[in-house]
């Protein structure tokens, strides 16, 4: 038997035995963690548990073939794998269960994710890349079933790109594209669209991925017959099987309790993927779920006695143990000793983790009890405060919330009293809250020097004698040309992006110049286009994923919000994916070509910058800025701007539109009009017409919706005009309401207003088609004019008499 690729055939029995027992120890360790983990939830120490029991053995096989530089993109069952590659210790496992907020103790997410969601660190403290080829890598898990699939495609594709682009400096990311991306997914999750889209795209792209399907025949309580045609995923996938004449996918099937077969299968799979860059699917059957799906509920409710008995008999750890004994690799006592030792280790780890989790809270509690006590002694509400104090003393295992509640309630009883003791308590609470909040809220965006909002503005420059006027799309194309020249790791891909250089020819001719790896066409599959981008960005490339029209971004919204937008936050800044999503929208006609749905996007995509440039100069400047930063962003180009003439800057590729900065495009004194994107042009026209009736509007381009106006410049305009109208083509209460909150509440704009702040938006329905459909669905020049005029009329009817 060949145990690992590094094992020679003439391995000594002792070495062989040591390897087997080392695997057995990990399998048993992992199982013991699962069993004790469940108890921690049942006794109330942890809130929820989802464990890897029943899936241990195939994960050991996967870990054996997993090499430095490889990446995993998996799901919550993979604790055994993480232990086998040395990235999860029992104590970490318990800290994960308790949601300890200290990243040193809970290395997977500092308590931000539930247990069973794993990660390895790709970044140094300053946000720069580690050398990923020197370590085993796991992209950060998300809870959404099959949500790991789109990213898996990109992780695998990165190897292909690195193998093809020989001139790239890939030293931190790849050794000639030899890395395999390893996916894992549950059998039931293969019902999801993301699974099928990824499988098809992997077959088309021929990327080195090995996808394991852990098949326990259930998805929580629902058996295979409701999930999978023919109840056999590899059978249904067989049409993807490669043959002599057609590239495709290699599909392997193996039983999850068969140690030797697993080792062979994984070695074989790794060779095929690594050397040939062919995707492989391993359907691992006959797995079990000894403790049921999670700590919520028990599987006795939905598995019959026969199934439960079968699961007991075919538990992979049990069969592994029997095989070890039957093959004479070890004796019963030897295994019993190992097991005893491991049980002790895990119990100790659990105890230590709990002590560590509590110690910070206990020490805070001690101080707080003392402060409340001292304040009570000098207060007229002594008895009420004593009760709070005593309740707190009685809380043996306090969490931060208990401390905050006690301190905040105590302060209410001290209101109006002036004592040093009250001040001390208030100061303690303020410090406690300000130190605690970042533990839960930091790292939504980069906290390092190259965060996008720190990239300095560089204005576009123009030839003084004769500035060339070009179509917007030409300006954009020539700017992309500069970017691809400057950044050899930049690549763009999407529907019609390659050969014709996008539907609006903003990339015209660039495939011929830079090759079809860097300027590439894809299938029509928005979710995996973004997945390609996330995966490649996680491996040091600078992808630009193109979504043809903004209205089709909803197909990939799940991947954007669940994976990309939460990445930095959920990893506590330990992984980054600086992906740019390029799309076009605004001011079009019809239900699916209007490109207006900004409110929806800004709400679910916190963690991604959302930029809505009004023209291609601004758009190009945003691309230039983003390439200098390392954060993800969505850029919505103005669809009706590609054929409009713009002055061509002479510093293409260099000028930078700042992120989080508004631009005043017209000075004025009477009213502030705030808008963005194509609607801004309409507002500019309306402002000209308003001037004809003596209303001098100031026009502000929001430009970047997330984040909006980080310097608070809009409020300065209100200080002058004392009136505000926000205009966009989103639904009422959409992005305009967000902008209003930012200006009125966050910037304190209400203090300067003499008229009610207002919004002018599209109608509440999706936009109708045609010129008239547009006119009657979205704000037009007349609407803007009349709304601004009405505000002036209300303020000063003698100068601005009623229009109609
Ligand atoms: C998109 C989404 N839908 C539903 C859920 C709730 N959910 C969590 S796990 C699960 C079952 C998954 O079963 P399977 O893929 O077979 O994996 P297993 O747990 O059996 O290993 C469900 C429905 C989820 N997390 N995400
Ligand atoms: Mg399952």
Mean pLDDT: 96
Q: Please identify which CATH superfamily of the largest domain we are dealing with.
A: Thiamin diphosphate (ThDP)-binding fold, Pyr/PP domains
- In total, the number of domains comes to 4
Largest pleated sheet: 7 strands, mixed
Shape: globular
Structural class assignment: alpha/beta
> Using only CA atoms, what is the Rg?
30 Å
Helix content: 40-55%
The CATH class of the largest domain is identified as: Alpha Beta
Distance between the termini: 91 Å
Assess the beta-strand content as a share of residues.
Answer: 5-15%
Describe this structure in words.
E1 component of the 2-oxoglutarate dehydrogenase (OGDH) complex which catalyzes the decarboxylation of 2-oxoglutarate, the first step in the conversion of 2-oxoglutarate to succinyl-CoA and CO(2). Residues 470-644 form the Transketolase-like pyrimidine-binding domain. Helices cover 43% and strands 11% of the residues. The protein has 804 residues and is an alpha/beta fold. The protein folds into four domains: 28-293 and 307-328, Rossmann fold; 351-441; 452-647, Rossmann fold, CATH 3.40.50; 663-795, Rossmann fold. The longest helix has 46 residues, at 332-377. The protein binds thiamine diphosphate and magnesium ion. Thiamine diphosphate is lined by residues 77, 143-145, 186-189, 214, 216, 218-220, 293.
């Amino acid at each position: 038997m060949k145990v690992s690729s590094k094992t020679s055939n003439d391995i000594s029995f002792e070495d062989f035995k040591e390897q087997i027992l080392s695997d057995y120890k990990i399998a048993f360790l992992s199982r013991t963690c699962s069993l004790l983990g469940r108890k921690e939830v049942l006794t109330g120490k942890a809130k929820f548990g989802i464990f890897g029991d029943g899936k241990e053995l195939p994960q050991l096989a996967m870990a054996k073939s997993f090499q430095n530089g490889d990446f995993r993109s998996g799901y919550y069952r993979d604790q055994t794998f993480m232990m086998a590659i040395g990235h999860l210790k029992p104590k970490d496992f318990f800290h994960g269960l308790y949601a300890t907020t200290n990243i040193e103790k809970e290395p997977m997410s500092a308590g931000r994710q539930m247990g069973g969601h794993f990660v390895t660190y790709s970044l140094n403290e300053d946000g720069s890349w580690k050398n990923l080829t020197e370590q085993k890598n796991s992209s950060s898990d998300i809870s959404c079933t099959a949500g790991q699939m789109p990213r898996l495609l990109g992780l695998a594709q990165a190897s292909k790109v690195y193998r093809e682009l020989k001139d790239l400096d890939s030293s931190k990311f790849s050794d000639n594209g030899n890395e395999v991306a390893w996916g894992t997914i549950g059998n039931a999750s293969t019902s999801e669209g993301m699974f099928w889209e990824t499988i098809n795209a992997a077959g088309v792209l021929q990327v080195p991925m090995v996808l394991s399907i852990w098949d326990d025949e259930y998805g929580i309580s629902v058996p295979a017959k409701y999930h999978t045609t023919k109840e056999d995923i590899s059978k249904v996938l067989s049409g993807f099987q490669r043959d002599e004449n057609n590239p495709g996918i290699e599909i392997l099937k193996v039983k999850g309790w068969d140690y030797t077969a697993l080792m062979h299968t994984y070695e074989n799979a790794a060779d095929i993927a690594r050397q040939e860059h062919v995707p492989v699917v391993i359907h691992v059957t006959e797995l079990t779920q000894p403790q049921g799906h999670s700590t919520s509920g028990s599987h006795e409710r939905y598995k019959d006695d026969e199934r439960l008995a079968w699961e007991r008999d075919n538990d992979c750890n049990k069969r592994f143990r029997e095989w070890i004994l039957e093959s004479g690799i070890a004796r019963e006592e030897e295994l019993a000793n190992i097991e005893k030792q491991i049980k002790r280790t895990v119990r100790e780890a659990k105890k230590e983790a709990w002590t560590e989790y509590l110690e910070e809270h206990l020490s805070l509690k001690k101080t707080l009890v003392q402060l409340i006590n001292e304040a009570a002694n000098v207060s007229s509400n002594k008895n009420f405060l004593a009760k709070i104090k005593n309740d707190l003393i009685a809380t043996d295992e306090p969490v931060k919330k208990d401390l905050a509640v006690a301190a905040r309630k105590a302060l209410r009883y001290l209101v109006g009293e002036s004592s040093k003791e009250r001040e001390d308590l208030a100061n303690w609470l303020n410090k406690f809250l300000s130190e605690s909040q970042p533990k839960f809220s930091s790292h939504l965006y980069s906290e390092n020097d190259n965060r996008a909002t720190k990239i300095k503005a560089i204005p576009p420059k123009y030839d003084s004698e004769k500035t060339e006027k070009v179509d917007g799309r030409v300006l954009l194309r020539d700017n992309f040309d500069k970017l691809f020249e400057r950044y050899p790791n930049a690549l763009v891909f999407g529907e019609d992006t390659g050969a014709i250089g996008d539907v609006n020819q903003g990339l015209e001719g660039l495939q011929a110049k830079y090759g079809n790896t860097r300027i590439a066409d894809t299938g029509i599959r928005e979710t995996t286009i973004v997945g390609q981008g996330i995966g490649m960005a996680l491996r040091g490339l600078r992808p630009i994923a193109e979504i043809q029209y903004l209205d089709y971004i909803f197909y990939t919204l799940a991947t954007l919000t669940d994976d990309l937008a939460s990445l930095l936050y959920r990893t506590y800044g330990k992984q980054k994916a600086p992906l740019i999503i390029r799309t076009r929208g605004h001011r079009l006609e019809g239900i699916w070509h209007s490109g207006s749905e900004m409110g929806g996007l800004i709400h679910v995509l916190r963690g991604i910058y959302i930029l809505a440039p009004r023209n291609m100069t601004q758009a190009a400047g945003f691309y230039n800025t983003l390439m200098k930063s390392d954060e993800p962003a969505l850029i919505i180009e103005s669809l009706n701007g590609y054929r409009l003439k713009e002055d061509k800057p002479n510093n293409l590729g260099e000028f930078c539109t700042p992120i989080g900065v508004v631009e005043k495009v017209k000075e004025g004194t009477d009213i502030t009009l705030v808008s963005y994107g194509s609607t801004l042009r309409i507002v500019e026209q309306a402002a000209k017409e308003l001037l004809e009736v003596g209303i001098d509007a100031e026009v502000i381009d929001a430009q970047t919706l997330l984040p909006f106006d980080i310097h608070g410049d809009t409020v300065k305009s209100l200080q002058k005009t004392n009136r505000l109208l926000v205009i966009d083509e989103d639904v009422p209460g959409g992005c305009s309401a967000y902008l209003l909150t930012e200006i009125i509440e966050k910037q304190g704009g209400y203090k300067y207003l003499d008229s009610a702040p207002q919004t002018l938006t599209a109608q509440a329905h999706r936009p109708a088609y045609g010129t008239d459909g547009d006119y009657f669905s979205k704000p037009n020049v007349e609407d803007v004019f009349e709304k601004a005029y009405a505000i002036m009329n209300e303020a000063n009817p003698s100068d601005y008499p009623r229009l109609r």
